[in-house]
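Appendix C: a fully annotated inverse folding record. The material below is reproduced so that readers can follow the format used throughout the book. The structure is listed first as tokens, followed by the designed sequence.
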């Protein structure tokens, strides 16, 4: 099994992870929708088997970009009508998620504003976990913005 087959399989898994209105489709559901067996899909995703052109065509008809799946270049979504609808919905969902994350981050006070003296160990651990979560949220937002910028270019 080649590295390109493995990469195609990973991108196919990525498509399956958003296939069900932004949520992950099961192997069975994904396979049924595309006229395949779950065993074939599992083999394609693991890179054990080449993805047939019929699957790329079925995904294109559903709005997914075969070029992205094969090469990793361009948008995940095809330039056809179903793809344009998916792309618009995905941008709306991403914006909503980023707003939720930014609101959550806004609830965490600045470290310099947090008074450490007189706090119990549990209170300090709780505050530390909030900072760690906020840092992870910020990194996720930055990564999503970078990916969107790269995809748009």
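Designed amino acids, in order:
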């Amino acid at each position: 099994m080649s590295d390109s087959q493995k990469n195609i399989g990973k991108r196919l898994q990525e498509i399956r992870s958003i296939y069900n209105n932004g949520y992950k489709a099961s192997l069975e559901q994904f396979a049924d929708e595309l006229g395949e067996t779950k065993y074939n899909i599992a083999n394609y995703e693991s890179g054990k088997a080449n993805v047939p052109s019929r699957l790329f065509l079925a995904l294109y008809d559903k709005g997914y970009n075969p070029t992205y799946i094969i090469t990793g270049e361009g948008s995940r979504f095809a330039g056809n009508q179903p793809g344009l609808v998916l792309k618009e919905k995905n941008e709306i969902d991403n914006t909503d998620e980023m707003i939720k994350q930014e609101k959550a981050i806004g609830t965490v006070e600045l470290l310099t504003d947090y008074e450490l003296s007189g706090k119990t160990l549990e209170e300090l651990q709780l505050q530390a976990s909030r900072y760690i979560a906020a840092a992870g949220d910020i990194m996720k937002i930055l990564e999503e913005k970078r990916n969107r910028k790269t995809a748009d270019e």
